[in-house]
């Protein structure tokens, strides 16, 4: 199986060519290209436009092509890209229109660089809203991308999310497998094509108290991409797997995740989003952390194969 890493953590490895060369030597075969680096979540929540996505599609493609060309030259596939997030916020029509334009350019850039999957967050619907209302808001928003996705062949992967309400994690509709499956199936029926799928974020699943194994069984064939990282079970800390432990307590059920992936026959990419666990290290130590993460990816791959063969 492919082993991937989010592109932003590789900066410490050298220039754009050197970083992918070294990543390949460590065992990475794929990347999650961070298109969101050009318009951060903080700027979106503050309603600030960074300006990068005001550029022409050709200019945007030229920028991201630096990464895709260097990656491919070193045997690394751009398996997925991450769009800016959140996708939209209720009541902010002007900002949402700008975000839609941004996502359309991300889809076109993904097509141009040969990246088949674009990961997006669901809409931040806020509190005091029913599941059916949240469904309608998300469906009406995402169905607008259907024609473009069908034309380009890009799959838009909607990620399981969470929100804070009064300082606490809110296990909102968009954190639940049943809700996301309902949304994806309705969108694909509308599009007449399998152009929407799921990205399962293990950290988000952990802090919203999910049984990873059962969640993955529900996602089944709709699971296209992964964001693998550890947490302390409370905060979205994006750590390297197995580093969210507290004494004898392991925050994340990694065995359940690996068995779940084996059970549904997942064969895509083990893509890690353990950026905080790596970037939190001193810069001189980060290459070793990236290498450790790759070793864990290889271990995960071996264990999933074993579980598939033993049907356990």
Q: How is the secondary structure organized here?
A:
Elements (H helix, E strand, L loop, with lengths): L1 E5 L9 H11 L3 E5 L6 H5 L11 H17 L3 E6 L10 H21 L3 E4 L10 H12 L3 H7 L2 E5 L3 E3 L2 E3 L6 H15 L4 E6 H6 L4 H8 L3 E5 L26 H10 L5 E4 L2 H5 L6 H25 L2
Parallel strand pairs: 1-2, 1-10, 2-3, 3-4, 4-5, 5-8, 8-9
Antiparallel strand pairs: 6-7
Strand order of the largest sheet: 9-8-5-4-3-2-1-10
The name CATH uses for the topology is: TIM Barrel
Q: What is the CATH class designation?
A: Alpha Beta
CATH architecture: Alpha-Beta Barrel
Order of secondary-structure elements: EHEHHEHEHHEEEHEHHEHEHH
- In total, the number of strands is 10
Helix content: 40-55%
Distance between the termini: 19 Å
Please provide a written account of the structure.
By secondary structure, the chain is an alpha/beta fold. The protein has a single domain (2-310), classed as TIM Barrel. The chain is 46% helix and 15% strand. The strands form two sheets. The protein has an eight-stranded parallel beta sheet. α5 packs parallel to α7 and α9 runs parallel beside α10. The protein is globular and about 45 Å long.
